[in-house]
């Protein structure tokens, strides 16, 4: 079963033929919301809204461990994360869809591992390639098949939030090699790897990062809604195709 974790702009999967909802409990507490089980283009899918169905949970308060644990125990085999980002690299402009291939983690203080139990042996997962290459390939193929342009490869910088960045921080992240910036990519990707769940992401660029382009004097989220709605229609097309593959 494929899991889709939806972020801002994707709190419901309208194309999903929902069959049942399930409130999960985990050793790590409650996930962001009920898991919605259903079928998308003939494939079993489970959907979870990362910020809750009413979009009330800020990035630093998402219970990433509970979300991943609940999806794993529900029978998930692999995960596609959909998340909105700010664009740093010039081609990662508002409206662009990006399938990132690397991560830099700038978050702090989040519960970021399943391997911190007193009794459990220490484990160091390999995270050289943080996204599953096969899943990335499948997403790119799905996008190609429905004629949607996506950017193949980008470095995702995960910040703590919930505030947006200063222009100087964006300059620094760019020097570090970051192309897009968001607040939820970590520890989600690492936790998926710890549970051996292949994980990849579709990032929707909704704004120029702080100090860049239209955000030169500030990030104005009023303009984001339209971009987000249009981009999500394209994301739906890609996800539907992915399920048919
Ligand atoms: N910065 C961080 N997270 C984001 C942004 C941004 O500019 N846009 C959407 N999520």
What does this structure look like?
It is a single chain. The protein is α/β, with parallel strands linked by helices. The chain has one domain: Rossmann fold. Helices cover 26% and strands 24% of the residues. Hypoxanthine is lined by residues 84-86, 159, 164-165, 181-183, 206-207, 209, 219.
What is shown here, in short?
With 245 residues, the protein is an alpha/beta fold.
Walk me through the topology.
Blueprint: E1 2-6, E2 17-22, E3 35-40, E4 43-49, H1 64-73, E5 78-87, E6 97-99, E7 102-105, H2 133-145, E8 151-152, E9 155-158, H3 167-176, E10 180-182, H4 185-194, E11 199-208, H5 224-244
Parallel strand pairs: 1-4, 1-5, 5-11, 6-8, 7-9, 9-10
Antiparallel strand pairs: 2-3, 3-4, 5-10, 6-11
Helix pairs in contact: 2-5
The protein binds hypoxanthine.
Distance between the termini: 13 Å
The helical percent reads 25-40%
Mean pLDDT: 95
| Annotated CATH architecture | 3-Layer(aba) Sandwich
CATH superfamily heading: Nucleoside phosphorylase domain
CATH fold-level assignment: Rossmann fold
| Total of domains | 1
Low-confidence runs: none
Shape, per Cα inertia axes: globular
CATH C-level label: Alpha Beta
| Number of discrete helical segments | 5
What structural class should be given to the helix and strand makeup?
Answer: alpha/beta
Q: Strand-residue fraction?
A: 15-25%
Q: What bound compounds does this protein have?
A: hypoxanthine
For the CA atoms, what is the radius of gyration? 17 Å
């Amino acid at each position: 079963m494929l899991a889709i974790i939806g972020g801002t702009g994707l709190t419901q999967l309208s194309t999903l033929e929902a069959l049942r909802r399930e409130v999960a409990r985990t050793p790590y507490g409650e996930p962001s919301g009920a898991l919605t089980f259903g079928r998308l283009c003939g494939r079993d899918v489970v959907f979870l809204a990362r910020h809750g169905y009413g979009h009330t949970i800020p990035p630093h308060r998402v219970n990433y461990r509970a979300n991943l644990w609940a999806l794993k125990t529900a029978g998930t085999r692999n995960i596609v994360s959909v998340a909105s980002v700010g664009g740093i690299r010039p081609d990662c402009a508002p409206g662009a869809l990006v399938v990132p291939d690397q991560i830099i983690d700038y978050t702090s203080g989040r519960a970021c591992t399943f391997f911190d139990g007193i009794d459990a042996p220490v484990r160091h997962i390999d995270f050289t390639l943080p996204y599953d290459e096969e899943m990335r390939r499948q997403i790119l193929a799905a996008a190609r098949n429905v004629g949607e342009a996506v950017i193949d490869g980008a470095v995702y910088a995960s910040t703590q939030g919930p505030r947006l960045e200063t222009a100087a921080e964006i300059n620094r992240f760019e020097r570090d090699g970051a192309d897009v910036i968001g607040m939820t990519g970590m520890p989600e990707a690492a936790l998926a790897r710890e549970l051996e769940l292949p994980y990849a992401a579709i990032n929707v660029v909704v704004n120029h990062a702080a100090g860049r382009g239209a955000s030169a004097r500030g990030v104005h989220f009023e303009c984001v809604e339209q971009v987000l709605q249009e981009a999500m229609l394209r994301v739906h097309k890609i996800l539907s195709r992915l399920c048919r593959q």
